[in-house]
Amino acid sequence: MRILPAITRYIYLTILFLSIPLLSRAESTDFLRSTGKIYSVVGVILILFVVIVIYLFSLDRKVTRIEEQNFDNE
Amino acid sequence: MLRQNWWKLLGVLIFGYVLVAGLLTPLKPGITDATPYTAVAGSSVDINVQGYNTHFEDGQSQVAFLKNRQQQVIQANSFRSTGNQSSVFSFDLPDMVDKDKARLTLVVNNSLDGSIILPDAITVTKGTGSISNSATWMPFDVGSLHVLEDFRFPYRNTLNETIRNTFFHVAIWFAMFILFIVGLIYSIKYLLKRNLRHDHIAAAFTEVGIIFGIVGLATGSIWAKYTWGTWWTDDVKLNMSAVAMLIYFAYSILRLSVKDIDSKARLSSAYNIFSFAVLIPLIFVLPRMTDSLHPGNGGNPALGGEDLENSLRVVFYPAVIGLTLIGVWMSTLVYRIGILKDQWINDL
Prior knowledge:
- Chain A is mainly alpha-helical.
- Helices cover 89% and strands 0% of the residues of chain A.
- The model of chain A is unreliable at 25-30 (pLDDT under 50).
- Chain B is an alpha+beta fold.
- In chain B, the strands form two sheets. Chain B has a six-stranded mixed β-sheet with strand order 2-9-8-4-5-10, with no helix packed on it. A four-stranded antiparallel β-sheet of chain B has the order 1-3-7-6, with no helix packed on it.
- In chain B, a hairpin with a 4-residue loop joins strand 4 (63-67) and strand 5.
- In chain B, helix 1 runs antiparallel to helix 6 (310-347), helix 3 (196-227) crosses helix 6 (310-347) and helix 4 (236-257) runs antiparallel to helix 5 (261-289).
- The A-B interface holds A 2-3, 5-7, 10, 13, 16-17, 20-21, 24, 32-33, 35-38, 40-41, 43-45, 47-48, 51-52, 55, 59, 62-63, 66, 69-70, 73 and B 19, 23, 27, 52, 160-162, 164-165, 168-169, 172, 208, 211, 214-215, 217-219, 221-223, 225-227, 231, 249, 252-253, 256-257, 259, 326, 330, 333-334, 337, 340-341, 344, 347.
């Protein structure tokens, strides 16, 4: 049972990783190219930020779970 | 509190510097396109030049050259600028004696831009055109040219502004590698001393390293789209780094699938050593043995010579340090959570 959370976490990350290209494909690529491709840099920084934030949320959830379990024991 | 946590603040401050310096420093001027691509020797040609960050109109004492492989040049007779980003340069091409074909490099120089270079801008073929002009090849006098002294990032064709991704995409792989090395050291330490804390440290650093690796793959995919034109390609470097990440995914799964704490620590420590041993050939050896689109492969090592200019190093090395510090911070959080979990299990 404990293996499940890890797998779902990687599934989430994989979906995120796959969905970014799909989302950005909706925008006009010509716009991105007309500005010296600066928006690819914005995209890269956004991915970095979003993944770190998602990871922080997952850590947050883990801490909450431990806190709840300790509370139940006492 | 600050006495213990100064390095976390330092990491964030360094990364802030990387964001500001990495995004606000302008690129050097460059030429995005020059048409036509071909011309016949012994004729006149008007080369229509599109510039990026250039000052064709504002720059003083502007000259343009076509340079051949023997460091000889022909100078443009005249130019007509329609704005700072676009200009037409007129050249008289001399007859070619010995060769059938020559690829010429376009050099534009003015007081504001320094030298702007487009390699292999035009291919000149031997033809029937013959104008009795005075155009001849002259030796290239570099000393008379203006030099751009500002702190700028280099302009590269097709890379353009994406050269700034070096500070994020490449730096995060470096940071991942440092985290994996720390994880490896603590896995070895665990196997030598059998201290469970060492295993927790190894697990934490490896887990954050995996997150950084995922960011590395995703950011590389975006960068590839805007330079190579595809999200993913059958390149050795790309495929092998994806395989390396899968091997590390298995490390996480292995840790969660073994219940007994001691056997979990022993198994995963041993596995971590093997996965690191596989990571090195996958990322550093195999891509260099064949041709690769990815810079730093196919025999030429990255960070050597032309691959990374000094202006990029000023931001790139801090980026590696900043992201590593942030990664270490994240790892300490994971470590503390792991320890708490173990204590809770022991209390039951």
